[in-house]
Amino acid sequence: MNKISKRFFFIFLTFIFIFFKKINKKKNIFLFKKIIFCNIKKIYILKIIINKI
């Protein structure tokens, strides 16, 4: 279970890194933060669900 969540987190971090490299415009930073915040909330909920199973 731990290995799965660690792998998932690593994939997510890689995704953020690639996404951040694509967005270098100051206009999109706010949108980017919004997207990250939403994804962190989703992952937190996912982790709770995974831990309960």
If you average the pLDDT, what whole number results? 75
What is the ordering of alpha helices and beta strands?
HH
Structural class: mainly alpha
Span between termini: 10 Å
In words, what does this structure look like?
It is a single chain. The protein has 53 residues and is mostly helical. It has one domain. Helices cover 85% and strands 0% of the residues. It contains two helices and no strands. Helix 1 packs antiparallel against helix 2. The longest helix has 24 residues, at 29-52. The radius of gyration is 13 Å and the shape is elongated. The N and C termini lie close together (10 Å). The model has no long low-confidence stretch (mean pLDDT 75).
Detail the topology: elements first, then pairings.
Layout: H1 2-22, H2 29-52
Give a quick summary of the entry:
With 53 residues, this protein is mostly helical. Helices cover 85% and strands 0% of the residues.
Please tag this protein with its features.
53 residues; mainly alpha; 2 helices; Putative F0F1-type ATP synthase delta subunit
